[in-house]
Amino acid sequence: MGFLKFKEQSIRKKFEKQLQTALQNHTTSAKQVQKVGILAFDELSSVIDITRLLEEGLENAKHFHLFSYRPYDKNAPKSYKHFSEKDINRRGEFTDPSIQQFLETPFDILIGFYNHSNLYLEMATLQSKAMFKIGFAGVNDQLFDLVISENPLKTESFISEIVKYLTLLKKI
Question: How many folded domains does the chain comprise?
Answer without folding.
Answer: 1
